[in-house]
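Quarterly update from the structural biology core.
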Amino acid sequence: MKNVLITGGSRGIGRAMVELFASNGYSVAFTYKSSENEAKSLAEATGAIAIKADSASESDVLYAVNTAICDLGSIDCLINNAGVSSFSLFTDITLDMWNEHLSVNLTGAFLYSKAVIPGMVARKEGRIINITSMWGITGSSCEVHYSTAKAGLIGMTKALAKELGPSGITVNAIAPGLIDTDMNRCLSDDDIRAIEDETPLMRIGTSSEVAKAALFLAGEGASFITGEVMNVSGGYLI
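Predicted structure, tokenized:
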């Protein structure tokens, strides 16, 4: 399984996965929405294919998948990583905010999976890895919209694993804890320290640590693992 499509690959966890998979012999395509400069520099550095696409748009998703297949020949592994997050009291969440979180974090994974699955079924093999969040398991105050979408992604992972297992396709999820990415730069030092104090390893995680978990799930060592949610949270979820 050497051809991988990573959504939301220009920054943070996605960027780390593009770099790690490319350095381990994978042919990589990745999507980005607006980080043009970051995407171009990453493509040049790794040889990966950068595809501009909005995960909330079905036409963009189909374009991205078709482009990746044309360039790579097939998509053996799909990593649904694209996501958005924001902090708001539940009573301040607008319908537009709610719909954006569901569209990008959950519906996007549905659209990409639906587009690549026929090819995987035809070949009787494939890997789908969904990047969810520990907040999709425990819930997070002031992130009800985000937690809801990530919890839905876990449900999709488990149900799809049962459906695709007979076709030789594994479907797993990774639930990162607090990771040092741009998405979490809005947190105060006090917020970060509070989470570190509740984490047995006493620190936040790195993008590369999540990327290594994805590389494992994509490899032969995970051939008999499906429907699982791998917690990469430093023990926060124990």
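The two ends are 32 Å apart (CA to CA).
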